[in-house]
Design goal:
GO terms for molecular function: DNA-binding transcription factor activity; transcription cis-regulatory region binding. Belongs to the LysR transcriptional regulatory family. It comes from Tahibacter soli. Keywords: DNA-binding, Transcription, Transcription regulation. The chain has helices spanning 3-15, 18-24, 29-43, 59-90, 99-103, 105-117, 129-137, 205-216, 232-240, 250-258, 287-299, and strands at residues 48-49, 56-57, 93-98, 122-127, 143-148, 163-176, 195-200, 223-229, 245-249, 262-264, 272-280. Strand 1 and strand 2 (56-57) form a beta hairpin. Helix 2 packs across helix 3. The protein has three domains: 3-86, Orthogonal Bundle (Arc Repressor Mutant, subunit A), CATH 1.10.10.10; 88-164 and 277-299, 3-Layer(aba) Sandwich (D-Maltodextrin-Binding Protein, domain 2); 169-274, Periplasmic binding protein-like II (D-Maltodextrin-Binding Protein, domain 2), CATH 3.40.190.10. The two termini are 43 Å apart. The strands form two sheets. Strands 3, 4, 5, 6, 7, 8, 9, 10 and 11 form a nine-stranded mixed sheet that branches. A two-stranded antiparallel ribbon has the order 1-2. With 300 residues, the chain is α/β, with parallel strands linked by helices.
Length: 300
């Protein structure tokens, strides 16, 4: 049994809706349903009356709701106490962030912070955007670094999770330079000769940003999809090998553009700006996080 299942159940009990609870818990509705089923299997009783609408609890569910809330409160209090002691002892600040930022933006940003604020111990947990947000809201990291685009917002409660803007990232298409130092491919392409297109996989946050750029393009682009991956570094390497063009964050390609390996293609209509934000949990912050946040506020 996992305590996340109890939190899932209590959320459904409070909202009376699998849909709203799945959104609040940053889960898909099928995933939330599977976790509730797993809890019911562990308990040996149905907690949700699935024959009613809106969602209601069974008598067993009502009984467990009271006990579950008390159990969870005690466990969370114990965990918070232990974590405060552990955090004070190690003084490490835990960052959750997407792979792309962990490989491109974060190392340079950390160097600048160390130079101006001072050196501190840190730990990075990198994953996709969904996993990074979940890691953060479940209390497994102190700070969340992520992209933000108005058309694809990260929905966190502003009072509990305040943020600071650390910078701006530009997304635009890039192609490899040939021996004559000209882009290997140019846009918009033609119907008879479409441009080979490398894209993020559908579940990737940056894929949805790319989709928005393409939807808003004033010129019809002729693209031939070739390959998909969740990682910006993977796309960049495919572009460097000449497999096609890709929309990439500026920080991911800065070194290769400087060295003349890659070139930006297309005009400004094919570019999008994303904020790079850092979030904290105002209910879970040890002294080291508070000091760093105060410094970052002064730098913002």
């Amino acid at each position: 049994m996992e305590f996340n299942w109890i939190e899932d159940f209590l959320s459904v009990a409070e909202t009376g809706s699998f849909t709203r609870s799945a959104h609040a818990r940053h889960l898909t509705q099928p995933a939330l349903s599977r976790r509730i089923r797993a809890l019911e299997h562990w308990l040996g009783a149905d907690l949700i009356d699935r024959g009613s609408y809106p969602t209601r609890l069974t008598p067993a569910g009502e009984l467990f709701r009271v006990e579950a809330a008390a159990i969870l409160e005690r466990v969370n209090a114990a965990r918070a106490l232990v974590r405060r002691h552990a955090a004070a002892a190690r003084q490490a600040i835990r960052f959750a962030l997407p792979h792309t930022l962990s490989l491109s933006f974060f190392p340079h940003w950390l160097t600048k912070v160390h130079a101006r604020y001072g050196v501190f111990a840190s730990r990075v947990v990198a994953g996709n955007v969904h996993d990074a947000v979940l890691n953060f809201v479940e209390g497994n990291s102190d700070l969340l670094l992520c992209y933000y685009h108005p058309a694809q917002p990260i929905e966190l409660d502003a009072k509990r999770y305040p943020f600071l803007r650390l910078g701006i990232e530009t997304m635009r298409p890039y192609a490899r330079r040939d021996r004559a130092r000209k882009p290997q491919f140019t846009l918009p392409g033609t119907a008879s000769a479409p441009v080979p297109f490398l894209n993020f996989s559908p579940e990737a946050y940056l894929r949805r940003v790319v989709d928005r750029i393409l939807e808003a393009s004033p010129v019809r682009l002729h693209l031939s999809p070739q390959h998909e991956t969740a990682m910006a570094e993977g796309l960049k390497n495919l572009v460097l090998e000449g497999h096609g063009i890709a929309f990439l964050p500026q920080s991911t390609v800065a070194g290769d553009v400087r060295k003349g390996r890659l070139a930006a293609i297309g005009d400004a209509s094919l570019a999008a700006e994303l904020d790079i934000r850092v979030y904290k949990d105002s209910r879970r912050e040890h002294a080291g996080v508070q000091r760093l946040w105060a410094f970052l506020e002064g730098e913002a």
